[in-house]
Design goal:
- There is one protein chain.
- This protein has 3 helices and 13 strands; from the N terminus they run αααβββββββββββββ.
- The strands form 3 sheets. Strands 1, 3, 4, 6, 9 and 13 form a 6-stranded antiparallel beta sheet that branches.
- The two termini are 31 Å apart.
Length: 209
């Protein structure tokens, strides 16, 4: 009875809001209380399989140019309307002076994550970061672009300019994608030749069907 109760409780938690993680928590505590059980283990695996995976937790296989992953700068982790985003998930261009990278030639600024054909969907958000409020002079002709490729094919592309105030959510099909590449172009350069982001992409989650 106890095991069935735990499974039913997990299902109830899940149904409240497609809460896979909540269901997993219920089942994990049931395993602690009741010990290992094949039925609990199977249910646990079922829910864990569906938990969205944070893209940046996968560890990139390649990172090139001025791309940064994660920030502690609140001017980058919030958008121009001051909405906050999860700072560890953010990908953007940033460079201090005197550390000039060679990304101006070649294939630009990008980062690659291995998906190994495990996922079906990638969702995320693109926005203009708060830091752009401080850009001096006329930078409004500048723009930032995010392009996402799956095994070389363009799956998503968007452009952010000085007129972009709203964040843009996206969801793309990544079925059978082995390698995901996120490429960014465009940044603002300070008087001291430092690069600041015009666009940030983040909160990217992978799901399995």
């Amino acid at each position: 009875g106890c095991i069935q109760d735990a499974i039913e409780e997990a299902e109830a938690v899940f149904l409240e809001g497609s809460d896979y993680a909540g269901a997993v928590a219920v089942l994990k505590s049931a395993v602690l209380d009741l010990g290992e059980d094949p039925e609990l283990a199977a249910k646990l695996e079922h829910y864990e399989w569906h938990i969205p995976v944070d893209l940046v937790s996968l560890e990139y296989t390649e990172k090139n140019g001025k791309i940064c992953v994660g920030t502690i700068n609140p001017e980058i982790s919030r958008d121009v309307k001051e909405t906050e985003y999860n700072d560890s998930t953010l990908i953007y261009i940033y460079e201090k002076a005197w550390s000039r990278s060679s990304s101006d030639k070649g294939d630009g600024d990008y980062v690659i994550y291995p998906l190994n054909r495990e996922y079906t969907k990638l969702s995320g958000i693109v926005y203009r970061p708060y830091i752009t409020h401080h850009f001096g002079g006329d930078w409004s002709t500048g723009s930032g672009r995010v392009e996402i490729f799956g095994d070389g094919s363009l799956l998503f592309s968007t452009r952010i300019t000085g007129d972009t105030n709203d964040a843009e959510s996206f969801e793309i099909d990544v079925t059978e994608v082995q390698e995901l590449k996120i490429k960014m172009t465009g940044y603002w350069e300070t008087f001291h030749f430092e690069c600041r982001p015009i666009v940030v992409v983040g909160e990217m989650f992978l799901t399995r069907n």
